[in-house]
Description:
This protein is an alpha+beta fold. It folds into 2 domains: 3-17 and 29-172, Jelly Rolls, CATH 2.60.120.260; 181-414, SGNH hydrolase (Rossmann fold, 3-Layer(aba) Sandwich), CATH 3.40.50. The protein has 11 helices and 17 strands. Strands 1, 3, 4, 6, 9 and 11 form a 6-stranded antiparallel beta sheet that branches. Strands 2, 5, 7, 8, 10 and 12 form a 6-stranded antiparallel beta sheet that branches. Helix 9 (305-321) crosses helix 10. The chain is globular, with a radius of gyration of 21 Å. It starts with a helix and ends with a helix.
Amino acid sequence: LKLTTMKILSILALIVTVMIPPFALSTSSPLRKRRTYLADDRRIHYEGRWDFIAQEGTGINIAQADWGCTAVHFQVAAFHDSSRVFSVSLMSIFSRISVKVTRFDGKVVHEDIIDQFGPVDYQIRLKTKGKYMVSFRKLTQPAPFGYGIGLELAGSSRVQLINVSTRRGVRLMQYKPQTTRRIQFIGASDMAGFCVDGTPDTPSDVATQASFMVTNCDEALPGLISEEFNAETSVQAESGIGVFQNALGSVNASLLGPFQMPELFPRTISVQEEPVYDSSLFEPDLVVISLGGNDFNNNPFPPEVSTFIDAYENFLLQVLDSFPENPPTIVSICGQGSPEDLLNPFNNRCGPCPFVEEAALAFQTKYPDTNTHYIFVTCDGSIVTGVDDIGCESHKNALGQSRVAEFLVPQLKDI
């Protein structure tokens, strides 16, 4: 990363977190006869890993998250002929947030993406009476500038929910879950949705220094597979992350930081060691893991295969130990590249797959009572073709991600 760019980003982060009051509202007309629901109201449902913190000076709890695909859901009833308006007060730092409002009959009546940084007062007017599901989902990965010097200078990507306010004619209902399963996704850039919203023409400095503008986990495997299974999701994914070492290993440690996924996995907020996440809050039926590529690709000093296998075994045990009462099914995947990747000596997505497969099968043999599986996603062009399905930095766009999801879903259903 260029230091001058990081200085600018650091100043931006300082402005939106310190100089702008966190409860500032937009200049739109005030809500009349407004009712405010605070972030810890039981009618608000949180998906993924969230932390509640007391707002300085007020003691009021707000909710914050940085992992990708974390979401806020609530259900509203619109019953008045006028003033069917509600407002969501957020703080958004280096994040993009999708907004979706769906009638209970399944019709989507509002979709949008918030890409404004700082305080957000997002208002929605419902045109007709009825009951609606409202969702705000964070699309961006937690550390777009890495866990090293970039984190120190510019900070992380995070979202805070302050409150939900309703005008006369709208009220929040008791939340009733709409999903039937739970799936956890763990991985690196492909799982985080890096460059899903980019194109091959996206400048490299934009993709790498402002990755929050091109990352979209909802159009990547976590969002696509969860929708297919009607599942709630939890995503722990970050570009460049590895199991034993990150992309470029010690050469890039100052940028990506000293942590690999085993260190990040227990965290509620990925950039904070505390609090450790309470795994009982989300016990998945299925865990999909896409890790191992960065340990070998873009690395002048790849690990010994036996060292990687030991690290992979320890991480799978770490995941299973998080759910001692209800151990989930674990599926390790590898590949997902286009034919062009096979010609790239530095980032051949299928190159490390024999080592990942060996690690996954060794685990199955050593721990036969666990329900673990391995799926290879070939790079021969039969899945990701390299034609119209590549975003920026040789990563898949939404079409490429959907092709991988279409390949995986039938196999996941058979497990």
